[in-house]
Amino acid sequence: MKIVVVGSGTAGSNFALFMRKLDRKAEIIVIGKEPTMQYSPCALPHVISGTIEKPEDVIVFPNEFYERQKIQLMLGTEVKSIDRGRKVVITDKGEVPYDKLVLAVGSKAFVPPIKGVENEGVFTLKSLDDVREIKAYIAERKPKKAVVIGAGLIGLEGAEAFAKLGMGVLVVELMDRLMPAMLDKDTAKLVQREMEANGVSFRFGVGVSEIIGSPVRAVRIGDEEVPADLVLVATGVRANVDLAKAAGLDVHWGIVVNEHLQTSDPDIYAIGDCAEVIDAVTGERTLSQLGTSAVRMAKVAAEHIAGKDVSFKPVFNTAITELFGLEIGTFGITEERAKKAGIEIAVGRFKGSTKPEYYPGGKPITVKVIFRKSDRKLIGAQIVGGERVWGRIMTLSALAQEDATVEDVVYLETAYAPPVSPTIDPISIAAEMALRRLR
After folding, report:
1. Looking at domain 109-236, which CATH architecture does it have?
2. Are 219 and 231 in contact (CB under 8 A)?
3. Catalytic (active-site) positions
4. What are 65-116's pLDDT values in tens digits?
5. pTM as predicted
6. Does residue 378 contact residue 434 with C-beta atoms inside 8 Å?
């Protein structure tokens, strides 16, 4: 069997490795535009800040590692089209036939049509080349004021990186809060306060209408001209669907796939940022543009091609980050999204400490849990705190994936030791607050 993978990022690289473990004889070819295989895009802001020393450090395995697994690499190669009738991928270096084709073509940074967005000193943050260009610009011009357009994960992590380098940072966001797709206004405010305490300022409900100067010297926000000598455009990403669309595959926001990650052509799979899957709460189609989702999709696609009866489950899009030492975890639906979707919910909130009150060193933690009234099931959570958010958001996400009810969370068996955690965990107390609204 000849398996061709288009895309050498997280999804494509992991698929090739999973596939090799399952089938030692298959011919596996990975075609990618970039000169290297998988690296961690989530680590890129930490390269800018200097926490990670150099861009090459985020490359997971060298190309030689894949070649030793008898995975053929065609890097620095662009796929022009797919001939489904002949089962051939047409590249700028010739044709490559396939039995099974896996599209792991990822996503691209969305750049809005702002006047001056192509000026010198304006960047996106999506690739190793982006990081190299930003670091070179900082080294040469030593910017003092940065403006970040967009307050999603990448925008906030970029803002943190610039602030750690000593720049004054302004984040401009069209919505009324930061992380609007992941956090409600009450939890977003907690993150905003921490970032403001570390020198990052915000402007909400407005957009940048013009970037002035090349190299950039200012941005225009409404009628106001704000000084800036570096601009980061972090207004989200868009799935790469052009190749699939031209091949006649079903495409919406992403490439439409079934539970086995097959496209409308059963011999072609789509995985990673480009694949459109199912939302676990609403049942609607959605994108799951997270590294963890890419790896799970890669595993499911490889196992299905190998003949196993496996499916990719609907997603809650569990995510976590850390900004200036504050951990932020989230999954599922927000309170605002639930209302827009017409889902009646019960919300529980608790603000407490990560350790018993009598034990020194506890850090503040705020837990918000969201349950659907109709079946009392956990469908979302947001946690903001000084430590151990990761374990708690993972626990809640795992419970939601197993259809846990509010009672399941209230009476959850947890662990206790004064240096680590309180006798009743904050997640159970938050669920108790929600249960009171359901009685």
Report:
1. 3-Layer(bba) Sandwich (3.50)
2. yes
3. 42
4. 999 999 999 999 999 999 999 999 999 999 999 999 999 999 999 999 999 9
5. 0.95
6. no
